[in-house]
Amino acid sequence: MNEGGYDYDLFVIGAGSGGVRASRIAAGHGARVAICEESRVGGTCVIRGCVPKKLLVFASQFAEFFDDSAGYGWQLGGAEFSWPALIAAKDREIDRLNQVYLRLLEAAGVDLHMGRGRLLDAHTVEVNGQRYTAEHILIAVGGRPWMPDIPGRELGITSDEAFHLAEQPQRVLIVGAGYIAVEFAGIFAGLGSEVTLAYRRDLILRGFDDDVRHAVADGLRGRGIDIRYQVEPARLERVEDGIRVSYSDGSRQTVDAVMFATGREPYTWDLGLDRVGVRLGPGNRIEVDEYSRTNIDQVYAVGDVTDRIALTPIALMEGHAFADSVFGGMDRPVDHANTPAAVFSQPPVGTVGMSEGEARDQGFNVRIFRSRFTPMRYTLAGRSEKALMKLVVDADSDRVLGCHVVGPDAPEMLQGFAVAVRAGLSKADFDRTIGIHPTSAEELVTLRQPVAE
Fold this sequence. Notes:
With 453 residues, this protein is α/β, with parallel strands linked by helices. The protein is built from 13 helices and 21 strands. Helices cover 31% and strands 24% of the residues. The longest helix is centred in the N-terminal third of the chain and has 26 residues, at 83-108.
């Protein structure tokens, strides 16, 4: 390749999940590839997102396991938790994964340039004062946490800083109610912190099925988390015993840490996009088509920086499809339909397909199958928390439009059911499948009676 006298066939800006996958696959197709990164190779998910977060989720669950063990005949001595030991162990694992990603790039023959990449034109990227030309440029810079512009916001932290706190805060306010907010609420509460979650709307996990949202809210409250709706911080002030929070409703609270989990924004500033003319949509997200093409020929974008779904597996799929289409001679448009997702809240969520509300809004004649029950693991432990299993079915075609689970191991069981939903299987197909007994998952193939309207 490398026609036209360019330094590279492909230059990738951003070495996160999408960028690394795209560069490796393109190199495997014979392209000469370079990638640049201003932070650590691996991106948000590996370095400061999904991976370290789930490690902290695991750590936070042990207290609950210790409590439940008494119902199964165990008698445990006094347990002690060390936040510094957990963070050190997490850092060692992230360092290992960072090295894995570096070796993957090296093995693929991809040139790595450390530094922030900026577009000078549609074929030129500048990194640390050095200019590189490429026939194709891929933008994969991801996103960064967003914080509201309120007085004292510099006293708050985001999830990026939460992974590196020297000490565990004993009183924590979490602002927001999406994935990150509910996951960190469970993490801090499980590790013994007193947690408040403040949300300016009326129910957590906006965009999910309403039954799922209520089930998770009940689970969070059952773990001692104070959820406050229709309120948000208006001011933060440093006081002698912590951070004083003044809320929009006039109330006040003093905490040790305020974590803003109020969303993420694409990392599009200072990239030179305006110089090249790359079109941005709402929220400064790069607009792309099903082949990840921007409005500028030879400039592409994948992952959280685009106007599509912000999930790591989506970025991986988009990066792979881009490289196959541009350098592998394949026709691989990206299909985001029926994307499965998990929330590692406590209780956790697994979901794929349409919510009940989405199906009704789209005009489907909907039948709902739903079960709430106590997971077997909780029976001897004495926990009253209920699991939720829900199927959204098109009554006219019998096709399963959505599958939603809240409870132990929900994300693990949903991966398989996501295949079924994406394949367009019917409720009858579910009914013909033998359940694995005794499991929670068998409920999804034994739901017989629809919910009465």
